[in-house]
Write a structure and sequence with these properties.
Elements (H helix, E strand, L loop, with lengths): L7 E4 L3 H12 L4 E4 L3 H9 L7 E4 L2 H6 L6 E4 L5 H10 L8 E4 L5 H13 L3 E8 L1 H7 L2 E6 L4 H11 L18 H30 L4 H11 L7 H11 L8 H4 L9 H12 L4 H13 L2 H10 L14 H31 L5 H7 L10 H11 L10 H24 L4 H13 L6 H12 L33
Parallel strand pairs: 1-2, 1-4, 2-3, 4-5, 5-6
Antiparallel strand pairs: 6-7
């Protein structure tokens, strides 16, 4: 067995790592399986990997020795310090031109740093976003690699073979760009996922608490919606989840505690939006909503103390579900639109030259936010690669115009009935703000100049020229510092 020269190694045999190995083996690649706990390697070899083109390694040196050169080693381990520690273990075993691939959910800034560090050692580095969960890893994930450009030819054949394929047989894997581009795209994907999930949850709550619908009927609505413009993996599984029962015959969703966890990528997306100055408001609200859900004890107490309206919810003229569908679709457009705005800004700042049409194409299958909706996004960027916002594309502009009446009725009815819809309402606020040519920010800037001498621009002067007014007659003539909108 020592003479075998494998195509790639995967280090880390949790479910994702194991499934990726099996996927690679199914596509004709010989894979080295390694785990820090040697017994896990033996269990894997005796179980799922039995009879497949998988080779066991019990040490890092052995793993490196089993690989054809240039070596390719994919880390499927916990993000954070563990990745840095493993890189240090690998460096003495590798040679110039070998490639380390991080397939975990690492922060893109860490990937930027690691790419430079590894390249300075003469090696190549890839930070690869992997979406699709356990099922995707086994049968075809969406892959978003970025990092050392010279690494792409080394991993391309493997990645494009194992990734998901669209209905037109296009691989859901494209090279994203330098250093942290792949992990930034994956982070943004996850942020959009947060927004999608929150909007769907709000639609569910409106039907359950506002319209008094039963779970089977709500499930039927989601199943019907999945046949149209809302067709997507998340809407599809929502219909199935709402119909599922536990061993006691109870609807399972009804007995699941209303506390939602998170692993951090939605928060990273929101923080990045603050850092880059992009108003990713819907995604941020989805993150805050998960935080509010964790306050279970506080919410239980508040429910018995704080009063709200008793008005019965009505979305108007017996078209409640139709209006709700429009609200969900419009909110979804905003969520994706904000995500691509963030990608656009990051591409400019980090000089990644991201191809937004390719990103949409990569997300069309295999990943959690896959939907027919992404075909429209791909078409939009193919027609106009430089469009500043998806909301300005003809298709999405028309869709929002057609949906906004039902969207507004839904948000108003929810507010009047005391049902919280943070994602749908902030999405609508963003839409209204974006289409407003004169926001009240002029007053805010006047206030800032009054109390802090922060300066302002004038409508009757060219952009980039700043002024300070001595509002009280007792102030100075100089502004406090540089102006940054």
């Amino acid at each position: 067995m020592k003479s075998i020269k494998a195509d790639i190694a995967v280090a880390g045999l949790a479910v994702m790592g194991q499934n990726l190995i099996l996927n690679m083996a199914d596509h004709g690649f010989t894979v080295v399986a390694y785990n820090r706990t040697a017994s896990k390697v033996d269990e894997f070899m005796a179980g799922p990997a039995r009879g497949k083109s998988v080779v066991a390694a019990h040490t890092v040196n052995e793993m490196a020795g089993l690989l054809a050169k240039p070596r390719k080693i994919m880390l499927m381990i916990k993000a954070g310090q563990a990745v840095d520690d493993f890189i240090e273990l690998l460096l003495p075993c590798l040679e110039p031109g070998d490639c380390i691939i991080d397939g975990g959910n690492s922060h893109y800034n860490e990937t930027i740093r690691r790419t430079k560090y590894v390249e300075d050692k003469g090696l190549l580095y890839v930070g690869c976003g992997v979406s699709g969960g356990e099922e995707g890893a086994r049968h075809g994930p969406s892959l978003m690699p970025g990092g050392s450009a010279s690494a792409w030819p080394l991993v391309k054949d493997i990645f494009t073979a194992i990734c998901a394929k669209t209905p037109d047989d296009a691989p859901c894997c494209e090279w994203m760009g330098d250093n942290g581009a792949g992990h930034f795209v994956k982070m943004t994907h996850n942020g959009i996922e947060y927004g999608d999930l929150q909007c769907i949850a709000e639609a569910y709550q409106i039907m359950r608490d506002g319209l008094g619908m039963s779970l089977p009927n709500i499930a039927l609505v989601f199943a019907e919606w999945n046949k149209g413009e809302l067709n997507s993996y998340l809407v599809e599984i929502t219909a199935k989840l709402l119909d599922a029962k536990d061993a006691n015959g109870k609807f399972l969703v009804d007995v699941i505690l209303d506390v939602s966890g998170q692993k951090g990528t939605g928060k990273w997306t929101s923080v990045s939006s603050f850092e880059l100055g992009v108003p990713v408001t819907l995604i941020a609200e989805a993150v805050f909503s998960r935080g509010l859900s964790t306050l279970k004890e506080e919410r239980s107490l508040a429910a018995s103390v704080l009063r709200g309206p008793k008005k019965k919810m009505s979305l108007g003229n017996g078209d409640s579900v139709s209006n709700l569908q429009k609200a969900l679709f419009a909110s979804k457009i905003v969520s994706y639109g904000q995500g691509f705005m963030l990608l656009l800004k990051a591409s400019e700042v980090y000089k990644w030259n991201l191809d937004f049409g390719k990103i949409a194409s990569v997300w069309r299958a295999g990943c959690i936010i896959r939907s027919s909706f992404l075909n429209r996004i791909k078409t939009a960027y193919s027609a106009n690669p430089g469009i500043p916002s998806l909301l300005l594309d003809n298709y999405f502009k028309t869709a929002l115009d057609e949906c906004q009446n039902g969207w507004r009725k839904t948000v108003v009815a929810a507010v009047e009935a005391g049902i919280s819809v943070p994602a749908m309402s902030t999405g609508l606020a963003f839409y209204d703000g974006l289409r407003c040519s004169r926001l009240p920010a002029n007053l805010i800037q006047a206030q800032r100049d009054y109390f802090g001498a922060h300066a302002y621009e004038r409508t009757d002067k060219p952009r980039g020229i700043f002024f300070h007014n001595d509002w009280t007659g007792r102030g100075g003539e100089k502004e406090a510092g540089s102006y940054n909108a």
